[in-house]
Design a protein that fits this description.
The protein has 162 residues and is an alpha+beta fold. It has five helices and eight strands; from the N terminus they run ββααααββββββα.
Amino acid sequence: MSKFESGIKQIPYPQSNVFAKLSDLNNIAAIREKLQDPAVKEKLKEQLPENQKDKLNDIESRLESLQCDRDSVSVDAPPVGNIALRIIERDPDKCIKFESTNSPIGFKMWIQLLPVTETSCKMRLTVDASLNMFIRAMVEKPLKEGVDKVADMLAMIPYGDN
């Protein structure tokens, strides 16, 4: 198994809000709907740091192919194709564990949350993939970048509206 970890992301919302939103994957579909509202897009652009504003269009295009229910999510991830995950464990307010159900490479993923203050928390995303040495050499850099992009997207979600 090969582990890929994101950097630690600061989230300006309470740990319980973040866990509540991420542990019910139906909430991700609601976020997609909100992002289609021009007023919401503009407000989000105003709140984003300058170095992340260009990521909003990338996030929006990826969310178009998103399908989800409470426990599973699937999304097109070029050039790999469709990837599907399901939640296999929830540790309230601390961790959400996923397992791939449709992916060219089997993997597990978890989102760890830790409180910073009563109104903020930090998050780290970890992926543990079944890779042989040859495959790892080819996909290590894109996988690490992908894990960081997903963590960036999760950190930008407005967790105040539960």
